[in-house]
Design a protein that fits this description.
Layout (H helix, E strand, L loop, with lengths): L3 E7 L3 H12 L7 E6 L6 H6 L4 E5 L6 H11 L4 E6 L8 H9 L24
Parallel strand pairs: 1-2, 1-4, 2-3
């Protein structure tokens, strides 16, 4: 079984964080490492993350932006296979298992998937 790190990126998205963490914990493929990356939250994100002892919280001293936090998460991960969820994305239970199967290909460096807006927030309404 491939060892996998999954990290969640969030910046002031506490209202979604419980849903994304619960979807991560419900994956059919067991993850070796689960992280929430703190880009200097100003909401209840840290308190929510602390409710889940199986998560590692990676904290920053300053807000450094999405790209930098993704790079930090990749460098911090213990495993070669690293998957990412934004804090406003809820993964179906088979999400990680499907990614790991595709990642096992000998010439595969990265894998993406389909995002479905179940809440009807995207695309933004135009006036």
């Amino acid at each position: 079984m491939q060892r996998v790190t999954v990290y969640v990126l969030a910046y002031n998205l506490a209202k979604f964080l419980t849903l994304v963490i619960e979807s991560l914990l419900a994956q059919s493929y067991a993850t070796d490492e689960k992280m929430v990356n703190d880009d200097r939250f100003q909401d209840a994100t840290i308190e929510i993350a602390h409710r889940y002892p199986k998560l590692t919280l990676v904290r920053r001293d300053v807000n450094c932006g999405l790209g930098a936090v993704r790079n930090i998460a990749g460098r911090t991960a213990r495993n070669e296979v690293v998957a990412s969820l934004d804090a406003d994305c809820v993964a179906v239970p088979e999400w990680l298992a499907a990614l790991v199967v595709v990642m096992a290909g000998p010439k595969v460096a990265g894998v993406g998937g389909t995002l479905t807006d179940a809440l009807g927030w995207w695309p933004p309404a135009t006036s």
